[in-house]
């Protein structure tokens, strides 16, 4: 039995089928734990055994081939063999533990195995981070459904329009989700795995890394009881469906591509690997992700899901290269295949803009109102493509952000930013930000912690009230972290419960709707344009921006070090730039709220709620920027503070600086 597995004649899935049919020798069945635990998941256990056997065989072979060539013991090795693969006591790399090799060989092992030696605090951080990401992806019905739906557009963009190949694709469903695959299904999927078509997508690859980082399997391993078994089965179902979401469409694409190549006169034996290569070139594939991107995906502060956008960049270039190659072919049927792929690319590139335009025309949404959405909506929606869904009973516009559905939205968001009605500098910054944010945007867990430390939510407003009691602040912080870090299915269940009990949202007062929460389970999350609420939360950011601009100047004026006139001028110029930018952005928001139907009186009342002064409200209403002034009382406070902390001489110096800065105004 083991020799069959080791020689590749019997895969882990085959072993699973044999175990169900009671055709495995008793000693092997006992080894796998059937007699000790009748509830064992045979597919999972067989997969583990197959992996262990293959890993051991691989390491044994490496030792046989490498000893004396690139592997050496500690007493007899070249001077340049300075890297040790693993410590003597390591069981993970046995029988290579304790051996020395060249640094580039050691790096190659590290790259190919995709592992890092994580110790101490960093290992704990990675584990916690992996658990959060796993919960937000695999354990989120909304995300899993979005993953499956959006992957369809890879097939359409590549001209793979023949959906009759779904019957082959459902082999992935029967194996990964239903776990009722037949021997024919397993043989078919094993062949596709050998060709690199399935089990190699960015989301599934990152999912497996999350599992390894978080030790999800270890948490459930060896535990019994009905509750634990239910959790284990639910987890396996979620993982299977998440992987199936990508592989389903890749199988359809592979069968389309293979059939097209055969029709073009290519021998079937050659068409199959050629089609597989094209799928790997034009569909996101985890094994093609570069080393730098993989490292970034494990960095706990930025880059939540970086593999996917990096693959969009790679596959987009490969799709154009494939189209160009087919169009230059002497084979007319290959040229037709190139044209079909070009049509698919054009269709997917334009269809989301078309859907948005049609829905806007249906519900009377003009360019001005769309710009209002971008000004007042959360930051991540400012360059999105919207599908409009009418208006609610209060006349507020409802819409869907189509970013989740369009895998090539990475290229469209910068274009949307450049076409918006705003200064070109703002458009350029927004476009570059959208292209870099998938790689360098704040990670989920880190972002939640940063918001707590800054006491400022991404959507505006405070995490907790600074004047509240310590207990109330702690509860508010804990609740904020809970909502930010909890698994996706918990958030879905919570919102459904709130909708069922008629609870209204904090801030906006809008009710949770059962229909919206049911639609969210299918991946479609509706948004409602509430201009008053958006204005209220954005006003907090305005107040913070004004305070920050003043600090940019007073920090220099209060400095304990020598400050020249040039330093004061430079600090004042920077402070005024920030001050003007804050007013300009907030005036734009006020104008957007007015366009959305909020009255002047209501706008003023909302701004007063967030402690915007009456004078500043007047300037914002008129779209003007007042001169930045340094208050007399602020200067006196600074001088008194300097006198107490540093003495009379420094107090006089601070008074001189403030006088010079005020004179600059």
Question: What's this model, at a glance?
Answer:
With 665 residues, this protein is mostly helical. Helices cover 66% and strands 3% of the residues.
Describe the structure.
The structure is a single chain. The protein is an all-alpha fold. It is 66% helix and 3% strand. A three-stranded antiparallel sheet has the order 3-4-5. The protein has a two-stranded antiparallel sheet with strand order 1-2. Strand 3 (386-391) and strand 4 form a beta hairpin. Helix 7 crosses helix 16 (332-362) and helix 24 (531-557) runs antiparallel to helix 25. The longest helix has 38 residues, at 226-263.
Give the N-terminus to C-terminus distance in angstroms: 86 Å
Number of helices: 29
Strand order of the largest sheet: 3-4-5
Q: What's the β-strand tally?
A: 5
Whole-number average pLDDT? 81
Main sheet record: 3 strands, antiparallel
State the secondary-structure class.
Answer: mainly alpha
Shape: globular
Residue fraction in strands: under 5%
Portion in helices: 55-70%
In angstroms, what is the radius of gyration?
30 Å
Which spans of ≥5 residues are poorly predicted at pLDDT below 50? 1-51
């Amino acid at each position: 039995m083991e020799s069959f597995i080791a020689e590749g004649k019997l895969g882990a899935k085959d072993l699973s089928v044999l175990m169900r049919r009671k055709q495995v020798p008793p000693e092997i069945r006992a080894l796998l734990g059937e007699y000790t635990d009748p509830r064992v998941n045979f597919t999972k256990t067989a997969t583990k055994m197959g992996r262990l056997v293959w890993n051991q065989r691989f390491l044994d072979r490496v030792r046989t081939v490498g000893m004396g060539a690139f592997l050496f013991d500690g007493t007899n090795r070249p001077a340049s063999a300075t890297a040790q693969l693993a410590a003597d006591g390591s069981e993970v790399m046995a029988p290579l533990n304790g051996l020395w090799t060249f640094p580039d060989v050691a790096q190659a092992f590290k790259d190919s195995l995709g592992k890092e030696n994580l110790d101490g605090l960093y290992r704990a951080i990675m584990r916690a981070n992996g658990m959060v990401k796993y919960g937000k992806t695999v354990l989120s019905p909304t995300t899993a459904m979005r993953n499956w739906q959006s992957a369809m557009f890879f097939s359409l963009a590549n001209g793979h329009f023949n959906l009759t190949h779904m019957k082959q694709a459902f082999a992935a469903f029967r194996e990964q989700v239903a776990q009722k695959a037949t021997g024919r299904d397993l043989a078919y999927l094993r062949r596709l795995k050998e060709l690199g078509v399935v089990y190699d997508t960015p989301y599934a690859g990152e999912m497996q890394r999350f599992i390894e980082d978080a030790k999800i399997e270890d948490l459930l391993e060896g535990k019994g009881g009905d509750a634990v078994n239910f959790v284990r089965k639910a987890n396996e179902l979620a993982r299977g469906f998440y992987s199936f979401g990508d592989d389903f469409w890749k199988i359809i694409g592979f069968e389309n591509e293979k059939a097209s190549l055969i029709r073009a006169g290519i021998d079937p034996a050659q068409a199959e690997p050629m089609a597989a290569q094209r799928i790997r070139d034009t569909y996101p594939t985890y094994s093609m992700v570069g080393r730098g991107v993989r490292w970034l995906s494990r960095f706990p502060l930025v880059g939540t899901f970086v593999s996917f956008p990096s693959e969009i960049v790679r596959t987009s270039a490969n799709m154009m290269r494939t189209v160009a190659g087919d169009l230059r072919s002497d084979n007319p049927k290959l040229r037709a295949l190139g044209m079909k792929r070009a049509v698919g690319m054009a269709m997917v590139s334009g269809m989301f803009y078309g859907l948005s335009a049609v829905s806007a025309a249906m519900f009377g949404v003009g360019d001005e109102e769309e710009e209002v959405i971008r000004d007042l909506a959360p930051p991540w929606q400012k360059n999105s493509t919207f599908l409009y869904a009418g208006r609610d009973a209060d006349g507020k516009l409802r819409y869907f952000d189509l970013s989740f559905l369009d895998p090539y939205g990475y290229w469209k968001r910068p274009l949307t930013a450049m076409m918006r009605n705003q200064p070109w500098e703002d458009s350029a910054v927004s476009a570059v930000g959208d292209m870099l944010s998938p790689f360098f945007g704040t990670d989920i867990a880190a972002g939640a912690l940063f918001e707590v430390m800054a006491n400022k939510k991404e959507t505006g407003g405070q995490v907790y009230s600074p004047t509240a009691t310590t207990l109330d602040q702690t509860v508010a912080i804990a609740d904020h972290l809970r909502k930010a870090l909890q698994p996706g299915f918990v958030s879905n269940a919570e919102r459904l419960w709130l909708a069922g009990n008629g609870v209204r949202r904090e801030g906006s007062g809008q009710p949770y709707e059962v229909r919206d929460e049911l639609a969210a389970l299918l991946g479609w999350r509706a948004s409602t344009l509430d201009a008053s609420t958006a204005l209220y939360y954005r006003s907090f950011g305005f107040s913070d921006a004004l305070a920050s601009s003043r600090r940019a100047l007073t920090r220099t004026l209060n400095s304990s070090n020598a400050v020249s006139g040039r330093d004061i001028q430079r600090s004042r110029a920077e402070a005024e730039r920030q001050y003007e930018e804050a007013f300009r952005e907030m005036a734009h928001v006020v104008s957007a709220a007015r366009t959305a139907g909020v009255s002047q009186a209501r706008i003023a009342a909302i701004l007063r709620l967030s402690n915007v002064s009456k004078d500043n409200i007047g300037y914002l209403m008129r779209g003007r920027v007042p001169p930045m002034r340094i208050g007399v009382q602020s200067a006196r406070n600074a001088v008194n503070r300097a006198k107490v902390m540093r003495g009379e001489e420094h107090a006089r110096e601070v008074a001189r600086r403030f006088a010079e800065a005020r004179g600059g105004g």
